[in-house]
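RETRY 2/3 - previous attempt timed out on the joint model. Re-submitting the same 882-residue input unchanged.
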Amino acid sequence: MLFSKSFIPILKNNPSEAVIKSHKLMLRTGMIKQSSAGIYSWLPLGFKIMKKIEKIVRDEQDKIGAQELLMPTIQSSEIWKESGRYEDYGEEMLRIKDRQNREMLYGPTNEELITDIFRTSVKSYKSLPQLLYHIQWKFRDELRPRFGIMRCREFYMKDAYSFDITDDEAKFSYNKFFLSYLRTFKRLELSAIPMAADTGPIGGNLSHEFIILADTGESKIYTDKRIFEVNSDNTKVNKESLIDLRKDFEKYYAVTDEKYDKKIFEKEVPEEFRLKTKGIEVGHIFYFGDKYSQAMKASVDYQGKKEFVRMGSYGVGVSRLVGAIIEAKYNENDEIMKWPISIAPYECAIIPFIDKKNNTNLEKSKKVYDHLLKEGIEVILDDTDENFSSKIKKFNLIGIPFQIMIGNKTEENSFEFKELNENTQNISLEKIIKIIKNKKK
Amino acid sequence: MLFSKSFIPILKNNPSEAVIKSHKLMLRTGMIKQSSAGIYSWLPLGFKIMKKIEKIVRDEQDKIGAQELLMPTIQSSEIWKESGRYEDYGEEMLRIKDRQNREMLYGPTNEELITDIFRTSVKSYKSLPQLLYHIQWKFRDELRPRFGIMRCREFYMKDAYSFDITDDEAKFSYNKFFLSYLRTFKRLELSAIPMAADTGPIGGNLSHEFIILADTGESKIYTDKRIFEVNSDNTKVNKESLIDLRKDFEKYYAVTDEKYDKKIFEKEVPEEFRLKTKGIEVGHIFYFGDKYSQAMKASVDYQGKKEFVRMGSYGVGVSRLVGAIIEAKYNENDEIMKWPISIAPYECAIIPFIDKKNNTNLEKSKKVYDHLLKEGIEVILDDTDENFSSKIKKFNLIGIPFQIMIGNKTEENSFEFKELNENTQNISLEKIIKIIKNKKK
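RETRY 2/3 succeeded.
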């Protein structure tokens, strides 16, 4: 991509309406644009990042055998009346009347709709377990939407649902998602801690939130630092291995303020391991047994009778993750953001010093650009005549992990190359390509 | 995928509520499930097909230099009041009041929102042309939704918008999309004819519909058969080559009944080339100059003054294409559907004859299955104990282009292999793999 052809409307300064750093950075680098209160358009830069996150989320769902489908955004109120949540949900549910005066709504979550799909499709326990997910826009009519896409109204979410015949099998499904979430966040270079959580309006009695640390987080968290050492790399998708993983985490105290108890914290956690900080919720999983299947009569044939299926639900905020990653990784003092290469909008930026009277540097840059493209590297070349130092400032904010600077002093095959937050080196194009490809692995 | 683990709820018979063949087939093979009038969930089989179509549509947009972004589904009424379409749009627009009593709506199209994005982002003509697109759910509150996903309320659409400084440049953009649509439909193995069309509520004076032939189509079409011979394979993305392509098509009469004139048809088209038939609209492109940019004050600096940009819009119904392809390709008499391999839900089906007392055939099948997976072929194995003939019937409907039948007579390395609508052959697994891979190219 040539910067002059791109659609990346950069702002010179931080926008005054933004308070937290992800909101500031996303507006400033033209990742998003607000279209109305709590509703955003994703411009090309932000869209690319979100799509790459979506792909990783999808990939980790597929790996545990979940199947993707897609439910609509607009739902009938009927099924919500069956489950009893139509009244409960309150004003956060966007209620709609269509031209025939039918009561509809914009789905804030999909337990009802997936249960309806399941009950008309699956008749026998032999088809279980079923793990189904979709990645779809949701709407929650927040009273005071704020913080950009972190607390907005229309948001993009992966929600999965599991169906099993026994509690024991259902917990196996729950644990599969538990593992898949750890793997997902790890691929996004986030340290997410699973924390026992309240179940709220979803219901049930087993639930974990996945929280990443960030100073600007909305949740206070209390944990034992040793929890960061729990490793799931060797966990296998079988019952025993997953139970062991859960136990490894449960050894350590880790709760949000909802469940915090000072006495227990101080009793269980030696002083040197105590961590009180703030965090952001990036995922939430629930096991709620037959709460919905009983209300909505979703049963299968099992041992000669109808048995209500046991269900869980599993959410990851895909659009929210974009903001959460910025909150975790953006160095606001130095104005440097660095995206993990797996989700960076481009892998490498070429930043030439351009003199209006002399286009030698631009020509050098185009050669490098063509070469990197041929090597399968996603690259953007800043061919505009903006001055060099403001180009650098701009690319530090955009957060592409690698930069090649091209100026009058650039020699035949020795380029000023920099990984963000590291030192500049002068090396050949071949070495640059090798370094970038190595990082992508 | 093992069929026993899949979520493909097949119906034994055609559903009584469906009239046209795509609707029947999609319900019968568990591709979709209606959730309320004109609103559908896409189950895994249908979802896979739609996603593959989406990928081809996206790829052809990228190839002409269009950039992807994503606008939200819920829009503010403000911008529609600016353009003057808020009242015009009538009851097909789903109007919503949020909890603050603000007038919102579910976007039926995005001319207003993209114009708003453009006017706050682009200031100079030097950034033009801009071709922007998104693939997003839309809602049109049809009075009588019917024919499944062909005339539904919530639908998935690619809509693109072009911004240029002069009429001449804008027509160049228009022609780029004209070409990209021909290429898109060709990759979907559809013969789509571009036909001069009325512009309707979008406005403007230049417009083409892309129509595919299908007996069940909703539009009557009148054309010169020689139009099918026009070839865009060698067309290049430059002004002259694209103008030539447009001229090649314009040589031949091709209109829908809206624009049909019997006298002209019979005067211009020699009798042997006259074709009167029915068709389905799969794409629609519009050029409307400064209709929206003037109303919404979207201008750029050009030659010392503000100039309103010239715009066009370009739609492809992604969800609708799934149905349109079925209408064009499903042989309802023989109950055989065959998906083009580029968008087939799986590339090959393995169909074993399974005897409950003897699992030799299932074991043979699993070996073949593992082998094909290793070769990167998307394969589904029917490991259920359904009887063999009803398995065949089922897979003829599902439409996976290749089948391997495994029975008691199957020898060491000679398999009964069939491409749908072709003869069965007995060949080795290596040959099978070669045939499938060749087809994928």
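DSSP finds 13 helices and 21 strands in chain A. Closing ticket.
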